[in-house]
Amino acid sequence: LSASSCPGFFLLTDSFCLMQPPSPSADCGPLPNISHAEPQGDTKEQQSFSVGSTVTFSCVPGYTKRPFLSDTIQCLTNSRWSSLPEFCGRSCPRPPSVKFALLSPEDQRQNFYAVNTTVRYICHPSHENTTDQPPTSTCLDNLTWTEVPELCQMISCPPPPAIAHGQHSGNSSQEFVFGSITTYTCEPGLELVGQDTLLCTTDSGDNEGVKCVSDCRAGGGNLEGIYVACPTTARQ
User: Which residue intervals define the domain Sushi in the entry (predicted)?
Assistant: First the structure.
């Protein structure tokens, strides 16, 4: 006899075949211990899991799931559990809110803040940081955040420039802050040349081109050093 002559049997001798004993069903036994995590559902006390079974774990209180790490194990065909990285860690809560500032875009996207993580804040468009110290906060070992200095101050502009024979809507004691609008007007008989309004922004110009000149329709001529030669047709 040959082995091929004994399908489903052991070849014991050249003359005899013995029945092959059935293979024990494959399983993975009880769940492994996962650091700072517990299995979900009622699987914790289960003693046997068939091949292909999957079990998902959750972090215990005080720990948070690390992003991009798996929290699920599977019973493999070799009757062993798949490996699982240590996916639970200690994380600070979401960083504190700060007046006139927002978390940087990259820090806003995070959902796990490990100890010693430092986040950065950016001033609102209407505010600016006038110091060399960046507004930041760091996650401490006790899972609290360091205090964030209030370094974002409202943007302010210098007073609008004065113009001869004209005035603007502001006053000498007024603070011209971000978003303030100032309007220029001229004395009667004069015409405004240039931009008649100024807006306080991060890149406000000085509006040097604005001035009051003689209105040709009123006859033109000299006015304390200001002279505009008016065409004859403009006086008609």
Answer: 26-90, 91-154, 155-218
Task: Classify strands 127-129 and 101-103 as parallel, antiparallel or unpaired.
Answer: unpaired
The verdict on residue 5 lying in a domain is no
Alpha helices in 28-187 (DSSP H): 105-108
236 residues of the chain, pLDDT tens digit each: 555 555 544 445 555 555 555 445 678 999 999 999 999 988 888 999 999 999 999 999 989 999 899 999 999 999 999 999 999 999 999 999 998 999 999 999 998 999 999 999 999 988 988 888 888 999 999 999 999 888 898 888 888 888 888 888 877 667 788 888 889 999 888 988 888 888 888 776 566 678 888 876 555 544 554 545 455 444 44
User: What's the CA gap between 2 and 14, in Å, rounded?
Assistant: 7
Regarding whether 111 and 80 lie in a shared domain, the answer is: no
How many beta carbons lie within 10 A of that of residue 85, not counting itself? 12
Q: How far apart are CA 41 and CA 54, in angstroms?
A: 12
Residue with tokens 């100890």: 115
Q: Quick one: which of 122, 118, 172 has its CA closest to 151?
A: 122
Q: Are 133 and 149 in contact (CB under 8 A)?
A: yes
Residue 144's CATH number: 2.10.70.10
Cross-strand partners of 27? 50
pTM over 0.70: no
Q: Are residues 42 and 105 in the same domain?
A: no
DSSP state, 28? -
From CA 161, how far away is CA 77, in angstroms rounded?
82
